[in-house]
Amino acid sequence: MINIDIKELKTRAQALLARFYGYGEFRPLQFDIIANAVAGRDSVVLMPTGGGKSVCYQMPALLSEGGVVVVVSPLIALMKDQVAALVSNGIPAAAVNSLQSEEENRNILEQLATGRIKLLYISPERLLSEMERWSRSLPIVLFAIDEAHCISQWGHDFRPGYTQLSLIKECYPAVPVMALTATADRLTRDDIALQLRLSDPKLFIGSFDRPNISLKVVVNPGKTQRLAMIGRLIDRHRTDSGIVYCISRKGAEETARQLAERGYRTGVYHARLSTEERNRAQERFINGDLQVMCATVAFGMGIDKSNIRWVVHNNMPRNIESYYQEIGRAGRDGAPAETLMFYSYGDIATLQSFVDESGQRTLNAEKLARMREYAEASLCRRRILLSYFNETMDHDCGNCDVCLNPPQRFDGTIHAQKALSAVVRLQGQAGITMLIDVLRGMGRQELMLRGFHLIKTYGAGADLSFAEWNAYITQMIQLGLLDIAYNEGNHLKVTDYGMRVLRERLPVTLALFTPYERRTSGRKTAWPEPQLSPAEILLETLKEVRVKLARVEMVAPYLVLTDKTLLELVRLQPTDMAAFASVEGISERKTVKYWKPFVTAIRKHLGIKEKLGSGLSESETLLLLQSGYDIPAIAEAKNIKPQTVYNHLATLISADRLTEFSSIITRDQYLRVMQVARENPSELFQILAGEMPLGMPKVALAISDYLLRHKAD
Ligand code: ADP
Ligand code: ZN
After folding, report:
1. 35, 374, 443, 643: which has the fewest Cβ within 10 Å?
2. pLDDT range class, residue 614, cuts 50, 70, 90
3. β partners of residue 342
4. What lines the ligand 1 site, CB under 6 Å?
5. 524: closest CA among 259, 291, 289?
6. How far apart are the CA of 391 and the centre of ligand 2, in A?
């Protein structure tokens, strides 16, 4: 173990966080996790998706002198995105995987030895086949195992490739290992440490709360209502994207077709598609081509798209872990995101059959029951979720449907009696829809044929709408008055408790039904043109700027700037480079690359007519110099010649804007220029051309003037 000066480390780490990520502060636990790794200790890190795990294993690479962090990651798509994100912030990173040529891969592995790559992403299979041949003296400072739950048979996406990873400790016993995951119960957690042979690992458990994600559950929605609600989500986020998770391939395809018919840009993703089709769909989604992806749970692991604005569950997931992981894909950038789960009794029947077929029947049945409790809850949903992950929250969240629309109770005894009595008279031979139609006195054929119009309660509930009855009968099921016979075509039965309520006329309290949102009907004809506020207009404008930049660079838009950063830009409206640079989420590399187009758009929006002043390129150079870039690096970052950089420096010195010279010229170089300037002024530049960089003499002369100017002071 290494002794470290924590205070000094923190100062350095914070400077790097600002420089390479544009963030002012670490999130809770991030620095502790980093310090633990720098000290050479193993760790298991549990944080929700979007919690900020990447920084934890990337920072040790930045903090080390010439060291590399090897990141073991199961998905190639994820590697690609992470590498692109790192490179966009000026951090040298690379991936070794089967998508690249062997030659490319070899090349990258050779560069490892020189410490020129700071982060290497690699699949577990590849690492295993590779590592035994690697030199023991490679400058590896950390192994990070991402999605570490894949190592455990107990986890829900076990990957055989992960099981041999104990080889890491055999080959590199002195290098610390950090195992990271978003989902791990105690069993899996212990298994991870055991399988990787971690030595006395420190366990870090981050908060699972994701307050920016809103939670909403709709019980038993009809087909049209579902589509209308999804449509409204898409409309609210016209230029962004979301996911609709479906229980089956058929469901995904059907939903995709219906949404496409309404004019939305839609994709489908499920395990039956070919790898190629899946990759293409995923690619289009990541690039922002698609507004909505209709998918089975096969989609999403390793999707590192930070601006997914909403997630819909068309069916209830099989447990809270899956649910939380899936909704967690929304709003990873920390900006507000919406989630919506549709829950119907048909889902329960399907999920129940999955449980019956599964290996661990009791466990899975228990998990399904907890999921169902969540769906039916009338308490703050976030509190239920967090308590499931053993985290307590002492207040209601204010960002779930229960908090926002607390149920209003009323005496529903009469409604309950009508429904119970009808079920008795129907002799338990009808499902919900038929029961409602009987109560409302509908005349459809099947009802008449079966003689249901002859029972005494036929039409007794004609005063309520279908939706109202649907809501109240659902509540009666939740209250235990009625039961659904899943093995008998989902027919409703009166429970013993229901019989007592009926016979003894016990009071029943129900939650008042309020229509969720007004339904829209018919086909969509054109984009809605909502009234946008000035801030929304600016946001749209900035998104257009972002899309253009992304096209030029051929990267996904969120790699230019995330939605959250765009929202910050809208809030702060920076009108010059310095103000732009100080916005959270903007690294130096991005400042230099992007400040002009964004600031220009903001100035235009604000009606500022004057042109951006002169001397801007010099200001950029100064910013880079002050943040530690040397002259070749500045030239590369700005895509200009080093000589031009020297010209900028000379201008800056003449304007007294640059007063510290040691990083741009040595004392000897300066004295040499002075000497030639004295002895042979007319041939100064020719003489020095071979001895030092082309622009340097000009800088020396500017320094000399500067010193003369300031001698008198
Ligand atoms: P995870 O890997 O845990 O799912 P990420 O590492 O992708 O999460 O981080 C989620 C988001 O949070 C990213 O947009 C990331 O840039 C941002 N983030 C991480 N650390 C910080 C921080 N200290 N301050 C602000 N944003 C952060
Ligand atoms: Zn709540």
Report:
1. 443
2. low
3. 218
4. 23, 25-27, 30, 47, 49-55, 306, 332-334, 562
5. 259
6. 15
* pTM given for the model: 0.68
Find out whether 482 and 493 touch, Cβ atoms under 8 Å: yes
List Cβ neighbours of 12 (8 Å cut-off, separation of 6 or more).
63
Whether 520 shows a pLDDT value over 50: the answer reads no
Lookup: tokens for 451: 């003689």
Other C-beta atoms closer than 10 Å to the C-beta of 655 total: 12
Place of tokens 């779930």: 400
**Quick one: pLDDT at residue 199?**
92
Q: Are strands 482-485 and 491-494 parallel, antiparallel or unpaired?
A: antiparallel
Question: What is the 32 CA–ligand 1 centroid distance (Å)?
Answer: 15
CA of 27 to the centre of ligand 1 (A): 9
Ligand 1 geometric centre to CA of 332 (Å): 7
Res 184: pLDDT: 67
Question: Ranked by mean pLDDT, which of 111-125, 239-253, 274-288, 682-696 comes out on top?
Answer: 239-253
Q: What are residue 88's phi and psi, to 5 degrees? A: -65, -20
- 269-299 pLDDT, tens digit per residue, is 999 999 999 989 998 998 888 999 999 988 8
Ligand 1 mutation pick, 62, 286, 309, 332, max ligand atoms within 8 A of CB: 332
| 3 state SS of 120 | strand
* Ligand sitting nearest the alpha carbon of 386: 2
Rounded distance, CA 470 to CA 204, Å? 45
What pLDDT was estimated at residue 556?
82
Listed in sequence order, the DSSP H helices in 505-607 are 534-553, 557-560, 563-572, 577-581, 588-606
Residue nearest to atom 10 of ligand 1 (CA): 50
Write out pLDDT tens, residues 78-105.
788 889 899 989 899 999 887 778 888 8
Which structure tokens are listed for 99? 């998508």
* Cβ neighbour number for residue 572 with a 10 Å cutoff: 14
CA gap 213, 302 in Å, rounded: 19
pLDDT digits (tens, 9 = 90+) for 298-320: 888 767 677 899 999 999 999 99
Best mutation site among 54, 207, 303, 564 for ligand 1 pocket (most ligand atoms within 8 Å of CB)? 54
Looking at 146-253, which runs of residues are DSSP E strands?
177-181, 202-205, 213-214, 217-219, 241-245
- Give the least confident one: 36-40, 89-93, 619-623: 619-623
CA atoms of 375 and 219, how far apart (whole Å): 8
Alpha-helix runs per DSSP H in 223-297: 223-236, 249-261, 275-287
E strands, 297-374, in order = 308-313, 337-343
Residue 672 banded pLDDT, cuts 50, 70, 90: very high
**For the chain, percent of residues with pLDDT exceeding 90:** 51
Q: Closest ligand 1 atom to the C-alpha of 25?
A: 23
The single-letter DSSP state of residue 520 is -
Chain mean position to CA 102: 31
Is 150 in contact with 74 (CB distance < 8 Å)?
A: yes
* Structural Rg of the chain based on CA atoms: 31
Pocket test of ligand 1: the residue of 10, 16, 23 to mutate, having most ligand atoms within 8 Å of its CB, is 23
DSSP three-state, residue 180? strand
